[in-house]
Design a protein that fits this description.
CATH superfamily: HesB-like domain
Number of strands: 7
Number of helices: 1
Order of helices and strands: EHEEEEEE
CATH topology: Hypothetical Protein Aq_1857, Chain: A
Oligomer: single chain
Largest sheet: 4 strands, mixed
Number of domains: 1
Strand order of the largest sheet: 3-2-5-4
Helix content: 10-25%
């Protein structure tokens, strides 16, 4: 089942900036979204983890931990939040 994930403009800009900066050093870098302790977190990785969904959104190819659905927003200091 494909993840249903939406990004606000602010979240998209934050994630795209992270991915773009990382790819200057590692062209295979991708952003991975995951939950840790009930919070949404990002990692820069070269490959998806087993069970991850690959989600193509607005110029981003995100690896998303299974079960993450909803709208991702970026708060102050680009901290990501998820409204399920």
């Amino acid at each position: 089942m494909a993840a249903v994930l939406r990004l606000t403009d602010r979240a998209r800009e934050a994630l795209l900036a992270s991915q773009s900066a990382a790819r200057r050093f590692d062209p295979s870098a991708h952003v991975r979204l995951l939950r840790v302790g009930g919070r949404l977190r990002t990692e820069l990785v070269d490959a998806a983890e087993p069970g991850d969904e690959v989600v193509h959104l607005d110029g981003l190819d995100l690896f998303v931990q299974a079960g993450i659905v909803g709208t991702v927003d970026a708060a102050e200091h680009n901290e990501l939040t998820l409204d399920a």
